[in-house]
Amino acid sequence: MLQRPEQHEYAPYYGTYIQLVPEGNLIQLLDDQLDAALALLSGLSEEEAAYRYAPGKWSIKEVIGHITDTERIMAYRLLRIARGDTTELPGFDQDIYISGASFDQCSLPFLLEDLTVVRRATLTLVKGLSEEAWRRQGVASSSPFTARALACVISGHELHHLKVLQERYGLK
């Protein structure tokens, strides 16, 4: 069982996400989250997946793409830090990633397959980490991070957006 990271293991900004992650087996939680996300999203029509709850807000398809892109980036950071790479890793602007993508032109099944493949890759990565690797520290977005903090960010970030999809987009 992976313990929740301490506050010095991540930037304060990410505390919101990390606090959403329940205590327990993080690897099992990441696996279960995928099932929950697919259950929430797979029944939508293409029209429903294009829904925006207000002008200028992301569509459901864009939220799915954002979750997937962010997980890719966080898993890449996790890999580098877990392997002992101390190169400072740059931040990223989520709005540039959304505007640079064409998520609304992708089919919902494609976006859900992409989300699934990325999560499965994250799971195989974290399942192979040693206790030492989980605690290795690096720098990303000008802040210290441990591998375990990044794994919690992946989980908490998705939990945050699934909650937004339920509360603001009316998904049940």
Through-space gap between termini: 30 Å
Query: In terms of structural class, how would the helical and strand content be classed?
Result: mainly alpha
Strand content: under 5%
Largest sheet: number of strands, sense, barrel closure = 2 strands, antiparallel
| Cα Rg | 16 Å
Give the helix proportion (percent range).
55-70%
| Count of individual helical segments | 8
Strand order of the largest sheet: 1-2
Shape: globular
Element order, helices and strands? HHHHHHHEEH
The overall strand count is 2
- Uncertain segments are none
Mean pLDDT: 96
In terms of topology, how is this protein built?
Elements: H1 15-20, H2 26-41, H3 46-49, H4 60-82, H5 94-100, H6 108-127, H7 131-135, E1 137-140, E2 143-146, H8 147-167
Antiparallel strand pairs: 1-2
Key traits:
172 residues; 8 helices
Overview in brief:
The protein is 59% helix and 5% strand. It is mainly alpha-helical and 172 residues long. Helix 2 (26-41) runs antiparallel to helix 6, helix 4 (60-82) packs parallel to helix 6 and helix 4 (60-82) runs antiparallel to helix 8 (147-167).
Structure description:
59% of the residues lie in helices and 5% in strands. Helix 2 packs antiparallel against helix 6 (108-127) and helix 4 (60-82) runs antiparallel to helix 8 (147-167). It has 8 helices and 2 strands. The chain has helices at 15-20, 26-41, 46-49, 60-82, 94-100, 108-127, 131-135, 147-167; strands spanning 137-140, 143-146. The protein has 172 residues and is mostly helical. Strand 1 (137-140) and strand 2 (143-146) form a beta hairpin. Strands 1-2 form a two-stranded antiparallel sheet. The longest helix has 23 residues, at 60-82. The two termini are 30 Å apart. It is globular.
